[in-house]
From TrEMBL:
It holds the Pfam family Cytidylate_kin. GO terms for molecular function: ATP binding; dCMP kinase activity. Coiled coil: none annotated. NCBIfam families: cmk. It comes from Ferirhizobium litorale. GO terms for cellular component: cytoplasm. This is Cytidylate kinase. Its main location: cytoplasm.
Length: 208
């Protein structure tokens, strides 16, 4: 029997770092499901295909190779924005959720992070975490990250972008972003990533 950790939350809440650290600590496989939506959007953009044709987009999603998702080429703001448009289409979600569920079966355990892991993809996950932080804190973290990597960043634009993406993710009819009833809430607004990791680890340890 495999062990599944489901981590959900809005953009830039720290769930990616937390998921990677948890996967490393327990020797589990990790899937950032946001990358599956991003890869679908990028394939459409690269092919000059529309972002809002459900049949075309679902076809692209069905043919995605999960073992070849490259964070480096999928991380841009523009692709994140396009991903959240592609993610509203039920046929796209059905294809990607099927692949995500297959991934979740891997032994000895898995960590999946996204928006609907605890509610839709893995409703029977052994541990569910909902990671949040205020929009201001998330925008500031993104901003500082970009500056630290030598880029230039406009705080107000990043803040607006985060608010817009939150709204689209929470308002969509299919699999909106919301905590599962049995999720542990982790607000990282005033927490270091190390403190959030220790808290998450104690929750997982209690369930192992
Ligand atoms: O987490 P990330 O920013 O990479 O996700 C990009 C977009 O993909 C999100 O804004 C969201 O619309 C979509 N997504 C989703 N369900 C998931 C993961 C991501 O709808 N499980």
């Amino acid at each position: 029997m495999t062990f599944t950790i489901a981590i959900d939350g809005p953009a830039a809440a720290g769930k990616g770092t937390l998921s990677r650290k948890l996967a490393e600590a327990y020797g589990f496989h990790h899937l950032d499901t946001g990358l599956t939506y991003r890869a679908t959007a990028k394939a459409l953009l690269d092919g000059g295909l529309p972002l809002d044709d459900e049949t075309v987009a679902a076809n692209v999603a069905r043919n995605l190779d999960l073992s070849r998702l490259d964070r480096a080429v999928l991380s841009s703001h523009g692709i994140g924005e396009a991903a959240s448009k592609v993610a509203v289409m039920p046929a796209v979600r059905r294809s990607l959720v099927e692949a995500q569920r297959a991934f979740a079966q891997k032994e000895p355990g898995t960590v999946l992070d996204g928006r609907d892991i605890g509610t839709v993809v893995c409703p029977a996950a052994d541990v569910k975490l909902f990671v949040t932080a205020s929009a201001d804190v998330r925008a500031r973290r993104r901003h500082d990250e970009i500056l630290a990597s030598g880029g230039s960043a406009d705080y107000d634009a990043i803040y607006d972008d985060i608010k817009r993406r939150d709204e689209r993710d929470m308002a969509r009819a299919d699999s909106p972003l919301k905590p599962a009833d049995d999720a542990h809430l982790l607000d990282t607004s005033e927490m270091s990533i190390e403190a959030a990791f220790q808290r998450a680890k104690s929750i997982v340890d209690a369930a192992l």
